[in-house]
Design goal:
Helices cover 38% and strands 18% of the residues. By secondary structure, the protein is α/β, with parallel strands linked by helices. Helix 6 links the parallel strand 7 and strand 8. Belongs to the cysteine synthase/cystathionine beta-synthase family.
Length: 295
């Protein structure tokens, strides 16, 4: 018999069938939406909470605070309760209602900050509240447990599921925990594996992908672990998000559409046998009220 936390990880790889992609190129989607909380951030939340408790920094009954743009908050709200912890989430007020309500459904307390101040202000407020009001802050942007869980789980899963044939890995970059952890693992196995990061083009607002100002660049991010980055526009991310749902049966969010856009473009340019894996970060239903499906 399993408990809910045992269901985190071991997510499937799904083949993307596209007649325009050369037959010798495999394009595979890693469905992190299959995690019980619906996103890749289930891994991050579990890694950070479990790590803090194992070190004795957190104890049952403690209260945690964290800034989030959505998925991490949902995962933390779900997992914190399983460890007897109180969870407060700080997020911009323009977050979708589905995300806010889901956090509350899992028992989280939500504090909304002005949209125009972005997630960077949410981070600042969470840090201030942690210092002044006795909250424990996990600080996903600077917490090594963020990338370590992907080194321990996501990377090995990709390597094993592809029988070591993976040649390229594509991931959206937000906190950068996923791409940092997977890069570490895959490069240890095969230095030739290419790691590609997706970031929004100038002026594009894509939930889950960020262009951080230097002051707020995640400290866990090591540029040398990414072979190259590719920019994606909001319009292109939305277009490919819709293609994932319509043509491939994968209902995902905009950041997944961005990663798919870059992975597919890459697949179309390759002439040698290759296996490209991209991350499907989350479920699309938490974006319905944003109106992006009608854009």
């Amino acid at each position: 018999m399993q408990d809910i936390l045992d269901l985190i990880g071991q997510t499937p790889l799904v083949q993307i069938h596209d007649d325009q992609i050369p037959a010798e190129v495999n394009l595979l989607a890693k469905l992190e939406s299959a995690n019980p909380g619906g996103s890749v951030k289930d891994r991050t939340a579990l890694g950070m909470i479990r790590g803090a408790m194992e070190r004795g920094a957190l104890h049952e009954g403690d209260k945690i605070i964290e800034a989030t743009s959505g998925n991490t908050g949902i995962a933390l709200a779900m997992i914190a309760r399983q460890f007897g912890l109180s969870m407060t989430l700080v997020m911009p007020e323009n977050s979708t209602q589905e995300r806010i309500d889901t956090m509350k459904a899992y028992g989280g307390r939500v504090i909304l900050t002005p949209a125009e101040k972005t997630i960077e202000y949410s981070r600042k407020l969470a840090e201030e509240m942690a210092e002044e009001e006795g909250y424990y802050i996990l600080n996903q942007f600077n917490n090594p447990d963020n990338y370590k869980i992907h080194y321990q789980t996501t990377g090995p899963e990709i390597w094993e599921a592809t029988s070591g044939d993976v040649t390229h890995f594509v991931s959206s970059m937000g906190t950068t925990g996923t791409i940092m952890g997977v890069s570490r693992y895959l490069k240890e196995k095969n230095k030739a594996v290419k790691i590609i990061g997706a970031q929004p083009s100038e002026g594009s607002n894509i939930p889950g992908i960020r262009r951080w100002s230097p002051e707020y660049l995640p400290k866990i991010f090591e540029p040398d672990r990414v072979d190259y980055t590719r920019e994606v526009s909001r319009r292109n991310a939305i277009e490919h998000m819709k293609t994932l749902a319509r043509d491939h049966g994968i209902f995902a969010g905009m950041s997944s559409g961005g990663a798919f856009s870059i992975a597919r473009d890459l697949a179309l340019t390759l002439t040698n046998p290759a296996t490209i894996v991209f991350i499907v970060c989350d479920l699309g239903d938490r974006y319905l009220s944003s109106g992006i499906y009608s854009e």
